[in-house]
Amino acid sequence: MGAASPNNGTRQNVPGSFPDPSAERAFQSWYGLQAAPLGLDPNPDDPRHFYDYRGAFLNDGGAGPEGHFPSAFKTFDHPNRFVDGIDTILNRPRGEVPEDMVLPVPTLGDFLAAPLGGRSY
Questions:
Q1: Model confidence pLDDT, tens digit, residues 84-109
Q2: Helix and strand tally (H, E) in the chain?
Q3: β-strands 86-87, 92-93: how paired?
Q4: CB-CB contact of 3 with 95 (8 Å)
Q5: How far is the C-alpha of 90 from the C-alpha of 92, rounded, in Å?
Q6: In three state form, how does the secondary structure of 25-74 look?
Q7: Is the CB of residue 47 less than 8 Å from the CB of residue 119?
Q8: What are the residues whose beta carbons fall under 8 Å from the beta carbon of 80, sequence distance 6 or more?
Q9: How far is residue 61 from each of residues 64, 95, 102, 107, 121, measured CA to CA in Å?
Q10: How many Å separate Cα 78 from the centre of its chain?
Q11: Rounded to 5°, angle at Cα 13 from 71 and 24
Q12: At 13, is the pLDDT very low, low, confident or very high (cuts 50, 70, 90)?
């Protein structure tokens, strides 16, 4: 679809729905086809995903053969944002990422304590 850009550090998507009902239906259908075989929560807006599935949808960013979605659409607080010292969202070394673009990474305790409707931290 190509209407949006990946999460390049200048924006952080907030879950919601597309204003156009037909676009939202298309997204929900796409997400269902992605989520079911991977065993993902059927709610694309569950905050425990730490991922912007709508951004991925707009950029044809479905799961690859390994079941991994493009890192560009991780939320800034994604637990695997930094891997081997590299910011997987911005594809830059950790030291080159401005501090205002780095959120605290939740711990397992934070994740387990989070209510289903949102984060508690």
A1: 989 898 888 988 877 766 655 555 55
A2: 3, 3
A3: antiparallel
A4: no
A5: 5
A6: HHHHHHHHHHHHHHCCCCCCCCHHHCECHHHHHHCCCCCCCCCCCCHHHE
A7: yes
A8: 74, 88
A9: 8, 27, 23, 27, 29
A10: 8
A11: 100
A12: very low
Residue 62 has pLDDT above 60, yes or no: yes
Q: Does residue 78 contact residue 50 with C-beta atoms inside 8 Å? A: yes
H/E element, 83: strand 82-83
44: phi then psi, degrees, rounded to nearest 5: -65, -15
Q: Is 94 exposed, middle or buried (0-12, 13-18, 19+ CB in 10 A)?
A: middle
Q: Are strands 82-83 and 92-93 parallel, antiparallel or unpaired?
A: unpaired
65: tokens are 């053969």
Cβ-based neighbour number of residue 75 at 10 Å? 19
pLDDT at res. 109: 59
Which residues, 6 or more positions from 55, have their beta carbon under 8 angstroms from its beta carbon? 4, 6, 7, 13, 61, 72, 73
Tokens of 24: 């939202």
- Amino acid at site 105: V
